[in-house]
């Protein structure tokens, strides 16, 4: 890893201001053929720039991000639209959002993400359950606590499920513009808020869950859906965003704005184990098609095309 002279926050601001003193990528690397901007910050470089855009959720609802984030995302997106040689999108849903945001279709390329999860054993699951005090069947959610993850509706949906022997497990760091205290209060004793957990524990938690639920309002890809399916866990997710594209027919798709629909889908998988097993098998098979090797090959093809 090589570093430019400016610390990252300053570097990004200099890049986005397009100031002459902004350090170019080549200042750290020497001459390169292509520069890949893997997120929102648009790099200053002499070589052609390929950008990854994972989602444009901030355009749908500016309240989903902080004021600083909104300014930063808008500027990075504007620069990508104006200056990127090609743009990688991780889903067709994101490609459609890019078109609506003014990107040219002939510069957009679909490069789906992949999953490389290690199948977890019964012993792995038992250790994770013991570590986090999970003694009953549970529904799992993973993701940063932020408005677009739709956790308020998930909590209200879970409160509708009459079974008292089932718990809800929330995994992920605190984010922004979101407080769950009011919705957690009526569910005291039925919800475990674990915060960040390491990769080994996360995969074991996926494998041990009876249901994984990601009712996001907006996702650029929805990697947790793929991670859950790779561990053979039945999935409930949103039909209005890219997670439906990732899950295909290997999950139950719901309207993320309908708390009752979310509750019914979760309860259906808890009660109908034959359905859950069918989705488990279908999910494993579908997840197996999303490999990082395929992602890498697609990205390499985009780099080559950027040079032509």
Q: What fraction of the residues are assigned to beta strands by DSSP? A: 5-15%
Number of DSSP strand runs: 10
Relative helix content: 40-55%
> Which spans of ≥5 residues are poorly predicted at pLDDT below 50?
none
Shape field:
globular
Q: How many alpha or pi helices?
A: 14
Give a summary of the structure in a few sentences.
This protein has 308 residues and is an alpha/beta fold.
Molecular structure report:
This protein has about 300 residues and is of the alpha/beta class. Helix content is about 45%, strand content about 15%. The chain contains 14 helices and ten strands. It has helices at about 10-15, 25-30, 55-60, 65-85, 90-100, 120-130, 150-160, 180-185, 200-210, 225-230, 240-245, 260-270, 275-285, 290-305, and strands at about 35, 50-55, 85-90, 110, 140, 165-170, 190-195, 210-215, 235-240, 250-255. A six-stranded parallel beta sheet has the order 7-6-5-8-9-10, sandwiched between helices. It has a four-stranded parallel beta sheet with strand order 1-2-3-4, sandwiched between helices. The chain starts with 7 loop residues before the first helix and ends with a helix. The mean pLDDT is about 95.
């Amino acid at each position: 890893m090589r570093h430019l002279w400016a610390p990252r926050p300053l570097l990004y601001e200099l890049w986005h201001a397009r100031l002459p003193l902004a350090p170019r990528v080549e200042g750290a690397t020497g001459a390169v053929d292509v520069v890949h901007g893997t997120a929102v910050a648009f790099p200053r470089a002499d070589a052609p720039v390929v950008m990854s855009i994972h989602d444009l959720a901030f355009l749908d609802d500016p309240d989903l991000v902080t004021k600083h984030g909104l300014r930063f995302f808008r500027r990075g997106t504007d620069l990508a639209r104006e200056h990127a040689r090609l743009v990688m999108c991780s889903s067709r849903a994101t490609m459609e959002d890019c078109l609506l945001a003014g990107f040219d279709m002939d510069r957009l390329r679909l490069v789906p993400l992949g999953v490389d999860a290690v199948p977890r054993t019964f012993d792995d699951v038992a250790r994770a359950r013991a570590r986090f005090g999970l003694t009953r069947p549970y529904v799992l959610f993973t993701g940063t606590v932020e408005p677009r993850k739709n956790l308020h509706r998930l909590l209200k949906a879970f409160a509708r499920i009459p079974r008292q022997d089932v718990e809800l497990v929330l995994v992920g760091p605190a984010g922004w513009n979101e407080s769950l205290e009011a919705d957690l209060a009526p569910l005291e004793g039925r919800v475990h808020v674990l915060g960040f957990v390491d990769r080994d524990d996360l995969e074991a938690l996926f494998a041990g869950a009876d249901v994984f639920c990601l009712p996001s309002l907006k996702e650029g890809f929805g990697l947790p859906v793929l991670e859950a399916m790779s561990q053979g866990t039945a999935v409930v997710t949103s039909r209005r965003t890219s997670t439906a594209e990732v899950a295909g027919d290997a999950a139950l798709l719901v309207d993320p704005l309908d708390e009752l629909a979310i509750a019914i889908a979760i309860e259906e998988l808890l009660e109908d184990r034959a359905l859950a097993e069918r989705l488990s098998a279908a999910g494993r098979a579908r997840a197996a098609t999303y490999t990082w090797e395929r992602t890498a090959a697609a990205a390499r093809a985009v780099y080559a095309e950027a040079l032509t």
